[in-house]
UniProtKB/TrEMBL annotation:
Entry-linked SUPFAM superfamilies: GroES-like, NAD(P)-binding Rossmann-fold domains
Pfam families cross-referenced by the UniProt entry: ADH_N, ADH_zinc_N
Named cofactor requirement(s): Zn(2+)
The protein's name: Mycothiol-dependent formaldehyde dehydrogenase
UniProt keyword list: Metal-binding, NAD, Oxidoreductase, Zinc
Record flagged with keyword NAD: yes
SMART domains according to UniProt: PKS_ER
GO cellular component, one term: cytosol
Taxonomy of the source species: Bacteria, Bacillati, Actinomycetota, Actinomycetes, Pseudonocardiales
Superkingdom, natural source: Bacteria
Length: 366
């Protein structure tokens, strides 16, 4: 039987999101309904709201979430009612070429629910990244649910669902940071901050955090950065990173800002033969001009990182255990806990750079 619940929906095109009632149907084959406990407010949600992402609205926002499986549809075997899960927007198929070759993190056939959630008048909703979690109840593919230890705080571990995992994975999975490496992270928001944590967790001895906002200095050091470069106007970021890495440049540079300027900084701040990882999503209008000879002479590796090249079933449970053992400072990413009606205010805080993450508490979360 379908349920009517409160949810945050945006029409798109920059118009404000509103708290409205939506209809969540019973789960179909391979689908489940999840009672949402907490959901982080991510830049991707703002992109849907502002029309940056080209998809048909209206949009059911929210995707970085944790909750309890409520009902399962026919054919669901990997989760059951009562499971505490972190939702993931990459539900790998197990059948494509990447999956068959043991590279499921590069799956090209992600699965989402096909039964639509709707407005009261029957208008289908586009759920953000196939999830839609700023709601009391959501409908997702069973593969988008990763069971984790229920002892964890839902408002903290929900952030593994997108931003924090993207940053951790950019350093650990995509960048392949090793013990003794030097690392530079450009942009110390939620994703960049997580890349700092991931670099230290992987054993980096020097982690240089770079940001235009001087307020991020304290945050960067709390997350494990050994050095901070305030990228104010006139500051030569490349020279400073080289100075802090013995004149060589960083073994791994993570660009978590995603502009033409930061791309160039990351490219030239990288040590010869090092790795450059772009994890931030650039604007479609951005363009680069680079001497091809520089690309040849500097050698090394350039990679983009989608979702931190994670495999949720492999990565989420052990990361939650590290959090429970106080070895992973996930709680530091939660800047504030808010209600469903506060999402627009959270977007403004995000635009000003006042928060790492606002987290929406939905239904009885701590």
């Amino acid at each position: 039987m379908s349920r009517t619940v409160s949810a945050v929906v945006a029409p798109g095109g920059g118009k404000p999101a509103e708290l409205v009632e939506v209809v969540v149907p019973d789960p179909g084959p391979d689908e489940v309904t999840v009672r949402v406990l907490a959901s982080g407010v991510c830049h991707t949600d703002l992109h849907y709201r502002d029309g940056v992402i080209a998809a048909e609205g209206p949009y059911l926002l929210g995707h970085e979430a944790s909750g309890i499986v409520e009902r399962v549809g026919p054919g669901v075997r990997d989760v059951k009612p009562g499971d505490f899960v972190v939702l993931n927007w990459r539900a790998v198929c197990g059948r494509c070429r990447a999956c068959r070759r043991g590279r499921a993190e590069a799956c090209v056939d992600d699965r989402t629910a096909t039964t639509p959630m709707t407005l009261l008048d029957g208008t289908p909703l586009t759920p953000a990244l196939g999830i839609g979690a700023f709601t009391e109840l959501t409908l997702v593919h069973s593969g988008q649910c990763t069971p984790v230890n229920p002892a964890a705080d839902p408002a903290v571990v929900c952030l593994l669902g997108c931003g924090v995992m993207s940053g951790l994975g950019a350093a650990m999975n995509t960048g392949g940071v090793r013990v003794g490496d030097t690392v530079a992270v450009i942009g110390v928001g939620g994703v960049g901050g997580a890349a700092v944590v991931g670099a230290r967790l992987a054993g980096a001895t020097t982690v240089v955090a770079v940001d235009r906002d001087e307020r991020k200095r304290a945050v960067a050091h709390e997350l494990g950065a050994t050095d901070f470069v305030h990228a104010a106007e006139g500051v030569d970021v490349v020279a400073r990173v080289r100075e802090l890495t013995g004149g060589l440049g960083a073994d791994v540079v993570v660009d978590a800002a995603g502009s033409e300027q930061t791309w160039r900084q990351a490219f030239y701040a990288r040590a010869l033969g090092g790795t450059f990882v772009l994890v931030a999503r650039p604007d479609a209008s951005m363009r680069l001009e680079l001497p091809l000879l520089d690309a040849f002479l500097r050698n090394g590796t350039y990679r983009t990182s989608w979702y931190g090249d994670c495999l949720p079933s492999r990565d989420f449970p052990p990361l939650v255990e590290l959090f429970l053992q106080d070895r992973l400072p996930l709680r530091r990413f939660v800047s504030e806990r808010i209600g469903l009606g506060d999402v627009e205010r959270a977007f403004e805080s995000m635009r000003r750079g006042d928060v790492l993450r606002s987290v929406v508490l939905v239904d009885g979360a701590r």
